[in-house]
Batch of 2 targets.
Target 1
Amino acid sequence: MNRVLGGIRKVCDAINRAASWLLIVYMGANTALIIIVILYRMTGRGVSWSEELSRWLLIGICFLGSSVAMNKGVHVGVTLLVDLSPSILKRALVFIANAAVMLFLVYFIRYSYLQAIASRRSVGAIIKLPMMYPYMQLVIGGVLMAIQLLPNLIGPLVPGEDITRCMLTQTPEEE
């Protein structure tokens, strides 16, 4: 079981590297877009499609960033109950919390996908691109978060696994 968990973590790390690079591209594109728009406005001209594209990039940044945060163990969470519990109960609480998050992600992915497919015939207000593509960023982000959650979901079931590694919010190691 430890080898399986280690293999899943390696896959998650590879996916995390790819998501991090894509996140850099999205943030760089959005930064460049904003700078270009500012320069255009200083000359008295405007770029009509910039706000819509910037919004779409920010949605991608949000969901890719959530996936990266889940991999790094820095996703927002409340750990008071887990921190105060004895170790046997701590494992159960972490598993239940992670299972609840996975259930939410499955629900989120399903309905985001249905919304994306339903919007395939509608186009953006300014950029005449099918709205399915911006909506698919939610689906991709949800799938990446679910993949990143797998080691945290399996970890509490592995005897001897450090339970703090399986929490969505990992406390930083003190130096």
Target 2
Amino acid sequence: MDRKVLDLWVGIFVAVGLGALLVLALQVSNASTTFNTAESYTVVAEFDNIGGLKVRAPVRSAGVLVGRVESIGFDNQKFVARVVMKLDKRYQFPKDSSASILTSGLLGEQYIGLEGGADDELLTDGDRLTLTQSAVVLERLIGQFLYGRAAEGGSN
């Protein structure tokens, strides 16, 4: 094979490999899933523990992407994490909806799951969700399990 043809094939192989790495990086970072922020409203929720939740994490309801986490902060008075979410205006939720921090996928990506309530009034821009469930922290579960086992073994 001619040297120029071999160099061309190596270049094509490298370009395809870099493209595949870019696609993989976009999937891992949630940048590949788009969300229209032009028509959205903001909702705030407070959690005792957010685990590994990150800004731009998905907000899903029934598996459908309905928004993204806009910001995460800490409330110095209540000692809780304050999560601000931007939800698409196409999806309206009742005021008594609940938010939970859930985990999906092999990489342990965390997202917020919204469950609609039964209230007649709908959430509007700036509303606060009061029914929240914090992230399940694996280390805490293991500690509780081991502590429970130790307590059972010590009483016999």
